[in-house]
Amino acid sequence: MMNDPEHAFTERALKQRERILEAARLCFLKRGFHGASIADIAHEAGMSPGLIYRYFPSKQAIIKAIIERQLESGRRALEEIKSAEDFVQGILNAIEHWRSGCANHMNAPLFLEISAEATRDPEIAATVEEADRLIKNHLLEAMQRTARSKVLYQDPRRANARILLLMSVVEGLAIRACRDPQLDPDLLRCALTKFIAGLQADEREYAAAAQAHSSCTKT
Amino acid sequence: MMNDPEHAFTERALKQRERILEAARLCFLKRGFHGASIADIAHEAGMSPGLIYRYFPSKQAIIKAIIERQLESGRRALEEIKSAEDFVQGILNAIEHWRSGCANHMNAPLFLEISAEATRDPEIAATVEEADRLIKNHLLEAMQRTARSKVLYQDPRRANARILLLMSVVEGLAIRACRDPQLDPDLLRCALTKFIAGLQADEREYAAAAQAHSSCTKT
Amino acid sequence: MMNDPEHAFTERALKQRERILEAARLCFLKRGFHGASIADIAHEAGMSPGLIYRYFPSKQAIIKAIIERQLESGRRALEEIKSAEDFVQGILNAIEHWRSGCANHMNAPLFLEISAEATRDPEIAATVEEADRLIKNHLLEAMQRTARSKVLYQDPRRANARILLLMSVVEGLAIRACRDPQLDPDLLRCALTKFIAGLQADEREYAAAAQAHSSCTKT
Amino acid sequence: MMNDPEHAFTERALKQRERILEAARLCFLKRGFHGASIADIAHEAGMSPGLIYRYFPSKQAIIKAIIERQLESGRRALEEIKSAEDFVQGILNAIEHWRSGCANHMNAPLFLEISAEATRDPEIAATVEEADRLIKNHLLEAMQRTARSKVLYQDPRRANARILLLMSVVEGLAIRACRDPQLDPDLLRCALTKFIAGLQADEREYAAAAQAHSSCTKT
DNA sequence: CATGAATGAGGGTTCATTCAT
DNA sequence: AATGAATGAACCCTCATTCAT
Predict the structure, then answer these.
(1) Among A186, B118, B219, D26, which has the highest number of CB atoms less than 10 A from its own CB?
(2) A165 and B112 in contact by Cβ < 8 A?
(3) Given CB atoms, is B202 within the 8 Å cutoff of chain A?
(4) Of B161, B172, B201, Cβ closest to residue A187
């Protein structure tokens, strides 16, 4: 509207960035960060390669934007998990979304690509780590809130271990789920249920023990 | 000495292949499969780019060789885990090796790279899957052998779920361990111990239930 | 202007393809198909090497385009020969054009290059053969039309032999003419005239014999 | 035998050069001068690439040696033609040899390769021209010797035209014969016979005319 | 704002040639 | 004399990026 030298925040500009990012996501999905070319992305977005550079300074910038979006999707997935009635079902839904390639959800091949990239680019590593920390905190808070025994989480080491485990399991399952598209969803559910049951059993057990006497940490 | 039309198996040739593969491993580690150039690898190996093609027909062949070696390392790691006195300790050792970047052990950034590549290249996918199946079978057999209750593993679904879970956890932990080099090894141990304890508790529980009456499957 | 997904047929694109092909022709002339590099061609065309690949998918494609053009020139030359008042003069003009290196005419060094290439590449061989067949048919038809005795061409073997001979002579003379730039055009004319005279004498002779009695083939 | 710093003329050395040249000939035949590599030639010769450089200073030198050999074969072919009872049959034999790929005979694909190379490399051009001149002279002398009318050849222009024509026809037929391996040998013979008959008829005619009165040049 | 032609550095690969053994 | 490992320049081709229109 206004004669705005900074065009970056016009509604149109936002829409264009959106188009580019969605196209990039699809291309990266199909061919990886390095395999997808700007020309591919431009074609997928239905625009010219040159135009992309009006909205992003470089391919690397697109990659970083995609990474941030995916991490943001991860956070959103967390919210959904937290608000789901059934915790297990929530995680399964999340994993299913990973497999789906849907735009609004973290996606396993991209997750691999991102993780790999993070091992090389310190800036990406920092971004990923930051997102990780945020998720970890949310998760911790959620677990504390719903825990049968608050005590369990008073020991930060124990709490961290549980969260580390939970996140590793989810990621590990998600990667396998993506690597093997034939993997039976029921098997996934079965494995995850068992795992969560284990966590809860542990919690219960700990709660019982805690009730018996004040504080006896048994590793 | 011998009238050897194929130079590929002389001692020197083997040593050169080794030099190249080790250089490639380091380069792939630093820059990824696509980011590392033949020139990089040649430089790292202290030889000219052309020479590499005396020992490998293409860069892709080097990548595949690296992948196979890593998968082989994975299998070796499994053997070590199986033969370790303490199962948990065995896995922790394995994960520690992943982090070390040592040539003889599976290595987490490469694992990510491989998984990402398998998403796109069907041949690599097949290789990875094959290795996976082999490990799964070994693991299954090992778990059956040491199980307190053989019955538990008679239900293939249940057995598969346990293995899926175990492998996912190990991989998930390994990736996190590699992504965050500051991650406290003790925390890792704590998480893994808890997980294994959960698995064993489940087994025990199941054995008890099985003893109560002949066969009551409770998912 | 138009919503044209294929840029290949815009006026500019055609002009560029033309520029490239003409540059390629000159380079191939100077250094042969294999001796001329894409960089040479790009330099000759006054453009960057990369740009060439916007208009041709590979060097091989350029070679094939050049070959097709040359064969097309051969067909055009044939038309000119057929429409020339004097057959001998028409052929001499054609040969002179071969020597000129002009873009619109078949050119002897390229003809050699093409023939040599056809020896190895079956696809090129097929293209050349196809063009050859076409020329042969045209020539046959022209000779039949202007023949003093139609009977002569009723024996396909005899007709084919005459055409084979004619084409071989023209090509042979053209190659020599190109190999030895000092070769006197008058000598060329003299030789060719004699040859054509021989052909016509044969025809006449045959016609006379045929008139004597119905059919006496004397090889 | 002797401690000979110039090893170039040892019997062994000659044998080695022979081996290399024959291998080179086969490789050049299959893949052309540029398509055949030193490694190919070494392999075909059953020796190491390095050894080749003990007997030839460069690939170019091998090419030149091959060219000289082929030209020499051309000269030998000429001798055979001259000594054949039937001139036509002699030429047909020669052409058949061109097609055969036999070591001792000029060979059509190589002839193409050589002619093409001669248009670029002045040194090769000179060699070829030299050989050509030699053949021309021999042919001239032979034709004069066997001519029914010596007078015909007293006009050098007329003589040169006949020779130019003859050589062009032979080369032209040879190239076509090599380009189209399916070409019927009988057709070849038919065409050539007709051509030679034409030459002889011309000669006869000229002799008759010459007899009529002393000297009346008609074209 | 948008295009897509143009650039040129750099990638994988080949191969004539050299040289230590 | 002979090997074949090693070199490095040059090849074909791709693609991130720029810029005239």
Answers:
(1) B118
(2) no
(3) yes
(4) B161
Burial of residue A17 (number of CB atoms within 10 Å: 0-12, 13-18, 19+): middle
Separation in Å, CA of C118 to nearest CA in chain D: 7
Residue in A160, C201, D121, C84 with CA at minimum distance from that of residue B190: A160
E strand intervals along C46-96:
none
> CA C36, C1' F11: Å apart?
10
Local structure of A201: helix, strand or coil: helix
pLDDT in tens, C173-187: 888 887 887 888 889
Residue-level pLDDT at C24: 97
Q: What is residue B214's DSSP assignment? A: S
Q: Under CATH, what is the fold of the domain A1-57?
A: Arc Repressor Mutant, subunit A (1.10.10)
The string of pLDDT tens digits covering residues C93-146 is: 888 888 777 888 888 889 899 999 998 999 999 999 999 999 999 888 888 887
Instruction: Give all strands (DSSP E) within chain B, no chain letters.
Output: none
Q: Which residues of A180-201 are buried (b: 16+ CB within 10 A; e: fewer)?
A: eeebeeebbbbbbbbbbbbbee
Closest of C33, C176, C59 to residue C114, by C-alpha: C33
In angstroms, rounded to a whole number, what is the distance separating the alpha carbons of residues A163 and A165? 5
Tell me, what DSSP letter sits at residue C101? T
Query: Residue B170 corresponds to which tokens in the numbers above?
Result: 């190990």
| Burial status of residue B124 (CB atoms within 10 A of its CB: 0-12, 13-18, 19 or more) | buried
Q: Hey, CA dihedral for C18, C19, C24, C30, is it positive or negative?
A: positive
Within 10 A of C6 (CB to CB), how many other CB atoms are there? 7
Residues 6+ apart with CB under 8 A from B199: A198, B162, B165, B166
Backbone angles phi, psi at B166, to 5 degrees: -60, -45
Helix D156-179 and helix C108-120, axial crossing angle in degrees, nearest 10: 30
Of A32, A190, A194, the CB nearest to B116: A32
Question: Which has the closest alpha carbon to D67: D132, D128, D129, D136?
Answer: D128
**Over the range C75-101, which residues count as b (16 or more CB within 10 Å of their CB) and which as e?**
eebbeebbeeeebbebbbbbbbbbbee
CATH 1.10.357 positions along chain C are 68-218
pLDDT at A175 exceeding the cut of 60: yes
C-alpha distances out from residue D66 to B29, D32, D33, D100, Å? 51, 12, 10, 17
pLDDT band at D6 (very low <50, low <70, confident <90, very high): low
Give the separation between CA A165 and CA A167, rounded to whole angstroms: 6
- Res. D20 pLDDT band, cuts 50 70 90: very high
Residue nearest to nucleotide F4 (CA to C1'): D48
CATH assignment of B68-218? 1.10.357
Write out the residue limits of the CATH 1.10.10.60 domain(s) in chain D.
1-57
